[in-house]
Every structure is written in structure tokens, then in C-alpha cells.
From TrEMBL:
Pathway: Cofactor biosynthesis; adenosylcobalamin biosynthesis; adenosylcobalamin from cob(II)yrinate a,c-diamide: step 7/7. This is Adenosylcobinamide-GDP ribazoletransferase. Belongs to the CobS family. It catalyses: alpha-ribazole + adenosylcob(III)inamide-GDP = adenosylcob(III)alamin + GMP + H(+); alpha-ribazole 5'-phosphate + adenosylcob(III)inamide-GDP = adenosylcob(III)alamin 5'-phosphate + GMP + H(+). It comes from Candidatus Thiothrix phosphatis. PANTHER family: ADENOSYLCOBINAMIDE-GDP RIBAZOLETRANSFERASE (PTHR34148). Its main location: membrane. Pfam families: CobS. Keywords: Cell membrane, Cobalamin biosynthesis, Magnesium, Membrane, Transferase, Transmembrane, Transmembrane helix. InterPro entries: CobS. GO terms for molecular function: adenosylcobinamide-GDP ribazoletransferase activity. It is a multi-pass membrane protein. Its EC number is 2.7.8.26. Its cofactor is Mg(2+).
Amino acid sequence: MQALTGMVKAFLRSLLVALSVLTLLPVPSVNSFSAEEKGRGLIWFPIIGMLMGLVLAAIAWKLETLEPMLASVIILTVWMFTSELHHLDALARSISSWFFGGSWMPDEVAEGDFRPPSPHLGVMGVMALIMMIKFSALAVLIEYKVWAYIMMAPAAARLLVVALIGFTPIASRETLAHEFRIEFPYIALFIWLLMAVPIALVAGIPMLVMFITLLLARLRMMQACNGLTWDAIGGVIVLLETVGLFAAALSA
């Protein structure tokens, strides 16, 4: 009985890790969990993305009688306040490092004290760009009633980010990102990827664009930061969702 209670507790705490990283729900901070719990929490990333996608697609379906632009505003607002807002500053800092250079981890910074370069685009600039692209893409997908791509984007982005964490070296002094690798669920990732292959074949171009974007982002972070940073995890999620929706809108 005690063993079963321990399993249930570990199960729930790994879920809370994923919710802490991926959403704005009132759950304990990710720093409240052990490194092993953080690694196990990655199993939930695609599931949470899938649930988010289902909710967003259901909202889009219920709002099909509205003008596409109005429906897009509502869906984007729900999306942003559920998950995106705490990733936008991370995306701004990541883009600054990847494309504008600068010392990502100065020598004078103590280990574990993260001090990235000031973002050239700024959080507001990144937010405006992301919202503009997502808004226009959502409006097109709603107009053509392509709910599947709205459902797919959050799940695919989070699955690809789990793969990124598993197969990318961690940048120096990135303690938090490193802890997610201590008990990384490689078997679960392999199963998720196998299950995703048929979906990727059906989705076609949008999934291909997301995968290429992931490879390019990985290349740039390796060149600029010598590995994966904590900011890049959240930033890449937003980036992949955005390019996936945009590619889906172009092919709708």
C-alpha cells in the first residue's frame, strides 16, 4: 500500500512539474521539485500540449459563427494567458543571443546566476510579432474550419522540445536545464515519436516546417550558447507553435 501511495505521489508530482513549466496555473515553482521529478515531468509535455490543443480547437469550433478575426482574438487571448506569456521574454532573450550575439554567460557571473544579454527586440517586440503571426494564421484556419492544425500545434511543439532537451548538450552553468536530463525519459520519448509519425505524415508541410525550425534553432543555440539554455526551452515552444500555425495557414 505504501509503495502504491509513493507511486501515485511521484505520478502527481511529475505532472505538477510539467504544469509549472508549460502553463500559468497556480502550481508550485519548478524549483520546488527534485532533479529526478523534473526529468520524469517531461513525459507529460506532449499530453499537456494535446489537451491545450483540444481546448483551443473546441473553442474555435464553438466560435465558427463569429467573424474569423474576432474568433482569432478570443482564441489567441486564451492561448496567451494559459501558456505563452511567461515564455515570451525567454524567446526575446534567446533570439537576441542567437542572432545578435553577445556574451551569453559572462565570466563574472556566479554559477547558477543566469544573466543573459539584453534583448535587442525586447519582450514587447517579440510579443507583437508572435501575436501578429498567430492572429493572422488562426483567422485563416478558423475561416477554412481547419481545427486539426490548431489542435496539433501545441502538442507537436512540446513533443519536439522534449526531443530537443534529450538530444542537445546543455550550456555551461545551466543548472536548471541540466536537471531535466538527469532522469530523462528516453523510452517514453521514443514511444511518443513513433505515435507521432502517422500524424506527421498526414499533417505534411506544417510538421516539416516545425522540424526544420527546430533544427535551425538548435544549430544557432549551439553556435551562440554552446548548448541548450533554460530560456531556449520555453522560447522554442512558442517559436514552433508560431511557424507551425503559419505554415498550416499557408497550406489551408
